[in-house]
Write a structure and sequence with these properties.
Blueprint (H helix, E strand, L loop, with lengths): L4 E4 L2 H14 L5 H21 L14 E6 L4 E6 L6 H9 L6 H11 L14 H4 L5 E9 L7 E6 L4 E7 L5 E8 L9 H11 L7 E6 L10 E2 L16 H12 L7 E7 L5 E7 L16 E5 L2 E7 L11 E6 L8 H6 L1 H24 L1 H16 L1 H4 L4 H7 L1 E4 L8 E2 H6 L8 E5 L3 H5 L5 H6 L3 E4 L4 H7 L2 E2 L2 E5 L10 H28 L4 E6 L8 E4 L7 H9 L9 E5 L4 H12 L5 H17 L6 H15 L1
Length: 631
């Protein structure tokens, strides 16, 4: 590549550029934060690779970022002596956004107006890099990759449809980003303005940021000036850090545009020593449920960057956290493979997990509104911990919130509150799972529980039934699904009376029940009288080991194979309809109308639970025929 070659931007990049320039960032000054962060990350990567590549090694004090404000030429240059990029990396990281999530990622930006990151990018080029076009009419990048025998490259674009790429020269590895500023953007050439932005957003960058100012006559100020304090923010005492500084570091480390909902500044001492600064985001990262896209906490060892993808520092159900952990105990040459099995990492993970759960518990107790907002955003992820973190299962269970038959739509309660307001005769915690809150609240399965004043948990989150499998009991109370098995409610005396009454009714209606079961044999396992219905005519339930229809629908939507199973049709012996059917059957045992009524009851039960009827055309005809006879 000896001559300049022109390349068209991908369609997604053109759309992204338009989005970044016009609506993604509310403050244009953000561009400098993003470019300085890119430079800092590139140096971090070079320092890490220098541990094993001698050609990348420098004296520690020589790592630096230089900002040159040239008023004469109206250019702003951000230079670093970090890792640099090869031609392939330039193409991947600037020419496209394929590694940042392509179509889905762009759609999420349009919807949420959030920036994002992909730590696999050398120097973190991506959405942050494109922010340069908010203030620049042309951007030029000169970069040379360290550790490889390849020439330097020059990338340039005016932000329209294409960019050019050609070979060039650069004395050392690293990257220069040169911005030719637009009209009206001269404020970003003023030294005081640059210092203010760096102080606000990037004061914690651990490498010196030097400022060189060239006036309108082309005269350079006598010397470079370091404009950041350089002390890693996580090593400062919390009393020395302002809320704005915490927020600025959060945006730097997460490449997000919101402020954190909670800051956790934690220093561990004792057998394992480390410093950490973790954040709970306000908004869910776009890749929260994309396992291949998630990145872990940034890991440093004695202030040397090791990796931005250390998933082993926290359990998977805490993947919403962003932040930094700096260890004093790990060796500098620790590899990613070693991290997975390292005993120090396991101790750090245990300590961090305990701390985060403690902070969430304190937040739940003292900041009710903020905790409810957190749970609405990240509750589904937190629930995963019940199944995968046996050691902390009880602590996680205490943090969970649920809708119930007594709560308003937005007011969820915890299991502790549920147990505290249980009637004295209630022995178990009852729940029902379904697709919607409105659908569950009208379920006929609730009738007997409402009559007795028993509260029922309403589970609508796809993960909830999985949670109940991992949490069979809480505070000595069993979690019982009200759509499985038979329900024996009330005192022992009440149960005996109900059982005797049911046994008498079953004996009286055994022939009708057998006939209904014969007509519905292809669809159901059994027809039986119900002890849970008080007003409705019928409902569908599972046996004790059966899978709920809600879980079946979820698995089918995920293209999972669901084993064939038959449900149980329960009918209410006290409902007038059942009495009429029994009378009709006694008059004419082979009456085909029994078959029609049995089908109507079965489909009615399906509709009540939110499942589709088996044969809509036949169901419609049967209803129409019934209406004609009634009229």
């Amino acid at each position: 590549m000896t001559t300049a070659q022109k390349h068209p931007f991908k369609t997604e990049v053109r759309q992204l550029l338009d989005l970044v320039i016009h609506s993604l960032y509310s403050k244009k000054e953000i561009f400098l934060r993003e470019l300085v962060s890119n430079a800092s990350d590139a140096i971090d990567r070079a320092r890490f690779e220098a541990l094993t590549h001698k050609s990348l090694q420098r004296d520690e004090e020589t790592w630096r970022i230089t900002i040159t404000a040239d008023k004469k030429n109206r250019t702003l240059k951000i230079s670093d002596n970090g890792i640099g990029m090869t031609a392939q990396e330039v193409e991947q990281n600037i020419g496209t956004i394929a590694s940042s999530g392509t179509r889905k990622f762009l759609d999420s930006l349009k919807t949420d107006a959030k920036s994002a990151n992909n730590p696999e990018m050398i120097g973190r080029f991506g959405v942050g890099f494109y922010s340069a076009f908010m203030v620049a009419e042309e951007v030029t990048v000169v970069t040379r990759r360290g550790g490889v025998d390849e020439p330097a490259l020059k990338w340039s674009s005016n932000g329209d449809d294409a960019y050019t790429l050609e070979e060039t020269t650069r004395n050392d590895f690293g990257t220069d980003v040169v911005l030719k500023l637009r009209e009206g953007m001269d404020e970003y050439l003023d030294a005081w303005r640059i210092k203010a932005i760096i102080k606000h957003y990037s004061d914690y960058i651990s490498f010196p940021i030097l400022l060189t100012a060239i006036d309108a006559d082309g005269k350079e100020e006598p010397k470079d000036e370091t404009i950041n304090s350089r002390k890693a923010i996580w090593k400062k005492a919390s009393s020395e850090i302002t809320e704005d500084e915490y927020h600025a570091f959060y945006r730097h480390i997460s490449h997000a545009s919101d402020n954190p909902a909670k800051t956790i500044h934690y220093n561990a001492e004792g057998v394992t020593e480390f410093k950490s600064l973790l954040f709970i985001p306000t908004q869910a990262p776009h890749d929260l449920f994309m396992r291949e896209g998630q990145k872990g906490i940034h890991l440093y060892v004695r202030n040397v960057f090791i990796t931005d993808d250390c998933k082993d520092l926290l359990p998977p159900y805490m993947r919403f956290l962003r932040g930094v952990v700096d260890s004093s105990d790990l060796p500098l040459n620790v590899s990613r493979e070693m991290l997975q099995d390292d005993a120090i990492i396991r101790r750090m993970r245990k300590s961090l997990t305990t701390k985060v759960l403690s902070v969430l518990g304190d937040m739940k107790q003292k900041q009710d509104k903020e905790y409810r907002e957190f749970f609405e955003t990240f509750g589904r992820v937190l629930k995963e911990g019940v199944h995968i973190d046996f050691e902390n299962k009880q602590k996680i269970a205490d943090l969970l919130l649920f809708h119930t038959t007594r709560t308003e739509e937005k007011l969820l309660i915890d299991l502790k509150s549920y147990v505290e307001r249980m009637p004295s005769e209630q022995k178990d915690i009852y729940y029902i799972a379904g697709d919607t809150l409105a659908g569950l609240k009208t379920s006929p399965l609730l009738e007997a529980f409402e009559r007795r004043g028993y509260e029922v948990l309403l589970l609508t989150d796809p993960i909830d039934e999985w949670v109940t499998m991992g949490l069979p009991e809480y505070s000595g109370k069993q979690l019982v699904a009200i759509d499985r098995g038979d329900m024996d409610l009330g005192t022992e005396e009440e149960k005996k009376i109900a059982q005797d009454k049911k046994k008498e009714a079953e004996e009286k209606a055994k022939d009708l029940l057998a006939a209904m079961q014969k007509h519905l044999a292809d669809e159901i396992k059994e027809v039986r009288l119900s002890s849970r219905l008080t007003d409705s005519a019928c409902c569908l339930v599972n046996d004790e080991a059966g899978m709920s229809p809600h879980l079946e629908r979820i698995l089918k939507a995920m293209d999972q194979e669901v084993p064939a199973s038959k449900r149980i049709l329960e009918v209410n012996p006290d409902h007038p309809l059942f009495g009429k059917m029994d009378g009709l059957f006694r008059e004419c045992a082979d009456d085909s109308r029994i078959k029609d009524y049995a089908e109507l009851l079965f489909n009615q039960a399906l509709i009540a639970e939110g499942s589709p009827v088996r044969n809509p055309a036949r169901f419609t005809r049967l209803v129409s025929d019934l209406m004609v006879k009634g009229l």
